Amino acid sequence: MSTTHPHPAGSPHPAEGGHEDLPPNHVDPEVLERERTRWTPLRIALWVGVALLGGVAWVMIAFARGESVNAIWFVFAAVCSYFIAYRFYSKFIELKLTRPDDRRATPAEYYANGKDYMPTDRRVLYGHHFAAIAGAGPLVGPVLAAQMGYLPGTIWIIVGVILAGAVQDYLVLFFSMRRGGRSLGQMAREELGVVGGYAAIIATLTIMIIIVAILALVVVNALGESPWGVFSVGMTIPIALFMGVYLRYLRPGKVMEVSVIGFVLLMAVIVAGGWVADSELGAQLFTLDRVTLAWCVIGYGFVAAVLPVWLLLSPRDYLSTFMKVGTILLLAAAIVVVRPEITVPAVSEFAGRSDGPVFTGSLFPFLFVTIACGALSGFHALIASGTTPKMIEKERQARFIGYGGMLMESFVAIMALVAAVSIDRGIYFAMNASPAATMGTVEGAAAFVNSLGLSGVHVTPELLQGTAEAVGEETIVSRTGGAPTLAVGLSHIMQQWFGGASMMSFWYHFAIMFEALFILTAVDAGTRVARFMLTDTLGNFFPRFRDTNWRAGAWLTTAVMVAGWGTILILGVTDPLGGINTFYPLFGIANQLLAAIALAVCLAIAANQGRFRYLWIIILPLLFDVLVTVTGSWQKIFSSDPKVGYWANHFAFQDALGQGKTSFGTAKNVEAMEAVVRNTFVQGTLSVLFVVLTIVVVVMGVVETVKALRGRGRGTHEDPFVESWFYAPSGLVATPSEKALAREWEALPLERRTPTGGAHH
User: Could you tell me which residues belong to the region Disordered (predicted)?
Assistant: First the structure.
């Protein structure tokens, strides 16, 4: 990348040669290791307790077979597993694969331009990264997968994130950081050669457009006709702008101070949103139709992607993290206090079938595709090679932000699963079955659910209507997509702790707004990352795009990518039979194919660095992901069951049209039948394209790994070593030596903390 470093590569650290009075730029690694690994009796007892509690919780979930299981065991199993994985497995990966060096400057420092590259406090950056990766997936996927029982989803979410999802996020973030913050596609181009590289670039760009469009549509659907949600979510933008200016100019470095201010303002606008929605003027101003909202989201996506990262994107994502993490922790606390009993079977009747009423397909591979974010998500690899590596202060922070951020998202997925399985099974299926099955009425939904023959399930129209009235909705029948089910589950648990049944409506609408805020942060970060991806790609042909300070290029590439996902979004909003519905079924498999591409690139990088003894850390999740995605793609392409296979469905509707039929299956007229034919053609074609591109990338990754084993590898494509000019702690909680060194730096005048004389926030 052609930009000027704040100081040239190889120049002395400020503590050397002319700047002897400055503190060191890192804590001695041996001192740090002794502090973090010293085994005192208290620490041993603590970890033994965590292991025992987690073991008991897993036994209760996996083997106890009474009439019900208490929801608290899900919380304990998840939290204990995460603590153990972060403390031991992620540390093992750090020692054996990444080997960070805090003496080394990151791209945020040596490419700093105050717009995309900017050293950002690790706590703020953790909030940004978590908000960016945590979109619709961890909320929706587990809810849909609950039709197969609670056990398969729980195992995949927790074990999957520890061995696959968090590993991918951490490695991609670290490797991108070492390469100037380059995008996943560009890293593939450098590590895998022309064929594998351009296959990865085409796949990542196409899948990214689809993913951002889908995320944007979920936001639009959640906020449509909801003045409370529109006001509250909209007000987070000026609050974030204020926080950005506050940290940049008014009180640099005062992260906890601005955190308290931001949290208070956020709570205020949430409460005020209810008042605004109840007022005549507020309802009139903030009740927006979906087309208007779609254009607002498109405009916001463009602006958020081109403004300096410190001004809107980073503080807004940090602000929304309060809402996201706070709500999930509140739900976890409520589960511990209320202790709801879950009567859903561990493995349901639909686990061994492929004709489930919520989604079709067998447990393997489609459970592992339906639950993507929360266990393993290729979208995260785009964020981890997008905004985050351009903002991270120190290399050791990558484990906390990459691995730790993904563990938090997994916890969101577990809480979503618990919320879904805590409500009555009959209500769950009535909410998630298609309108064609339920006829959109409480009577039709009750008849459909009762016809499924589920043990102990009997639904009445009165139960469904009463539930809708309790949450302040006209109906809950066929409210598909996962978000309304999560909102009902959350309100059902929270009202038992706060406020009773009269508060169910408040908690329901709070959850809907929470989900919209959750997902919008993935849209703005996704748009910025899409711009980086296109810029990197064009830089291979037009070197001018490699200049990180060329704003015209940034605006042009942003406009192109926004036009791509914005077009699909408008189609989805204006034509329910086309547009987004064409692409949504591709979301899960495309996302997991993207994860295979990311892991294949990581495999080649680790092999070229000579880390052969520890390649199994990457090979294990890569093999499983390839097996899942290729099997799923094969079934979607070649299955003769129209409910599963795209082409089988395509030809079934095409034949029906050829026979002169005016309705067929769920399509009630010729226009709808023609839309199904068109949509399934696009779905089938893209499925073939995506799986072929992924196989090419994986094969080239294996080829490069074998070459490295034989001593013919490509070597490293890391940026040259540049000595860092400042210091920052590595984890959420600093060790004693980190605190001591941080106090030395904080005692310096502000203008001396960076070589450019300005503060980094």
Answer: 1-27
